[in-house]
Design a protein that fits this description.
single chain, 59 residues, mainly alpha, 1 helix, 0% strand, elongated
Amino acid sequence: MPAFTFEKISPPARRAPTAAAPKKPRSVISQMIDRLADRRARRAVQDERAMRRNEKPAE
């Protein structure tokens, strides 16, 4: 006979999403970072396209 037993604990119930709370305005710093990241991503795509154009097909 075991000296102790484990009690099964069920996971917490999921909560339904609350009503849409008004979003806080984004800070100026986060907007600047978003713009920089967007420009960097666009530049990377343009560079990739340029590299593809410069590749010569193997004959």
